[in-house]
Amino acid sequence: MSIVIKIENLSKAYQLGQFSTGTLSRDIERWWALTRGKDDPFLKITEDNDRSVAGISDMVWSLRDINLSIEQGDRLGIIGRNGAGKSTLLKILSRVTSPTNGTIKLKGRIASLLEVGTGFHPELTGRENIFLNGAILGMRKYEVQRCFDEIVNFAAIERFIDTPVKRYSSGMYVRLAFSVAAHLESEVLIVDEVLAVGDAEFQKKCIGKMTDLGQGGGRTIIFVSHNMSSIRALCSSALYLKNGKVMEHGETDHIISSYLSDGSDSSTLDGTIPEYLSIHGTGEGRFTYLVPIGGDGEIKREFLFQEMLKVKFQFQAFQDINDVVICLYIVNMFGQIIIKDLGSTDFKPRLIEKGVHEIVVSIDETLLPGDYSFGLSASHFQSGSDIDFIDNFMRFKIRKESAEKGKDYPWATVQGYLQPRSNWKKIKLK
Amino acid sequence: MDVPAESPGDWDQIIESKSGLLDLRLKEIWQYRDLLLMFVKRDFISFYKQTILGPIWFFIQPIFTMGVYVFVFGNLAGLSTDGIPQPLFYLTGITAWTYFSDCLTKTSRVFQDNVAIFGKVYFPRIIMPLSIVVSNLVRFGVQFLLLIIVYIFFILTGWKPHITSYVFLYPILVAVLALLGLGIGMIVSALTTKYRDLALLVQFSVQLLMYGTAVVYPLSSLSGKWYSIIAANPLSFIVEGMRLGLFGEGVFDLSKFAYSLLITLVILFAGVIIFNKVEKSFVDTV
Description:
The structure holds 2 protein chains of 2 kinds.
Chain A: E1 3-15, H1 23-35, E2 59-71, E3 75-79, H2 86-93, E4 101-106, E5 110-113, H3 126-136, H4 141-146, H5 148-155, H6 170-183, E6 188-192, H7 200-215, E7 220-224, H8 228-234, E8 237-242, E9 245-251, H9 252-265, E10 285-293, E11 302-305, E12 309-317, E13 321-331, E14 337-341, E15 350-352, E16 355-363, E17 366-367, E18 370-380, E19 386-402, E20 418-419
Helix pairs in contact in A: 3-6, 5-6
Chain B: E1 13-15, H1 26-31, H2 33-49, H3 57-76, H4 86-108, H5 110-113, H6 115-118, H7 127-156, H8 170-192, H9 197-211, H10 224-232, H11 234-247, H12 254-279, H13 282-285
């Protein structure tokens, strides 16, 4: 296997805050320093991009000294929290922006799908957009022509091919966009979480297609996602970025579990949820606090098998919020949700008044031994828009030992996550 | 599929923070020529699809402008037209000026208008201004057709045309016009990514610049100080050259042509270099 992408000492600095204030004088000063052969006076930065720590300088490293080699046919998954530098890395690889330091050496062409349907024009038909999008991705017209039928088939939009894309559903839009990028003859394909938009069936199809491209077609794929199961399904190796640095690079499962455990371990024991964990939301309110507690209300990170497990969390509403549904998740070490608890069975949205609310949930399910963490979401029932969403917070452990004698979990490996309250009836047939 | 490269040295692309000032990557631009045509096509289709009158708009604008000029400059102000029929005189100026100012203003907004696409996918950014020049060339063509129609109409009504051999320079003059608009536009576009005020400045200065160019009056009507000022503007000679070719009247010769061409090339060259420098990192600043 040959190396198709070689990243050497790659760094990228961003300036925080207002660009326009004093840039002219700053530009002159910088130019003056550079012409005298001195260092850029505004690049003296030693800070990492850690958003939980307030910075002193107004420049920040989004990527810092990345070294990486990617071989032909690799399917590399990039994981990391928001702001870890994943998107910046993809942007530099796609040549949308340029690095501050370091080099990337590439073989072959890169098709990047940083966004669904970049350059699609709503007034143009599906057919015209295929050619336009293909050209934007750097293909010649005859190259697009050659795989045109395949693109249309894969996207399953034959009937609408001569309809302007403004009449397409968002699903059709995504399918077409992905299809164009996946079929064009580039040696490297970069995909940034765009699959989140399509339906489950199409997501599977995309993962399948990308796997094929990598294994059969020898194409290199770089994939960024927050969805660990997509990463696991697709990627042959993974890269864990944290605060702009490479934490680990290696076999997918290993990297995913170290990412997930690292992420939830960093949550402080006092249960305060840092603001940077709020991924996206309307800003009407946020979760501020979460701790697992035992039967007596004491904060714990380790539980015995079959021990009472409770969760205490706080939600701060900045205003009266109508039509809210709050969910508590329990997530396994692969980021998969194993319990989603709505707090009631009638699924009724409620009004949350302005102020801080505390909720204590007792979980009457028996979790099998292993490591878990929590997730929280508050969303509007009608529109489905998220008010706040906390993923993978506060890791906790269920031990194999039980409080009662002789009720320990007996096996070395644990299969499954829950012990159901089932009822077995045995009758002797013969 | 390519044969895997033997030596680690032969990479197809190297992404770095800096590039040579004169590294214009012409080969790469040539590879993206289909994209240029797709952008031109897109501009046209989207232009038609949102209008009822469609391509007729290409005619309406110059005809109405011509009417207003005939009234204001021809009748009220009584400006000379070198003996050329007023509608033809103004129409020649309008077609040329519209092309120049469209190239300039649209190119100067190219980064702001395309942040969404530039921020998500790479292609040589210069494709965008080039497509603007080509798109507008088609519009110019349509308006030039109108000029020809009016020209023929005047011949039919008994006016005697006087075409000179300078008419063969006409296509080159159009190209110079486009390149000058492109060059200034690129310089402005690069600067507006940081200093927004320039975009506003350009908008009205282009309008005013028309009066600083021999569009609504002939150069021959000026003398002394005013003549030197207006003649220093390379655009004046271009417009005059167009009129000399079509009507046999205009202050123009090869040395004046060389002057306009030289200035255009210098500006274009500066524009391309500045544009190339900015395109790499503008995404972070816009």
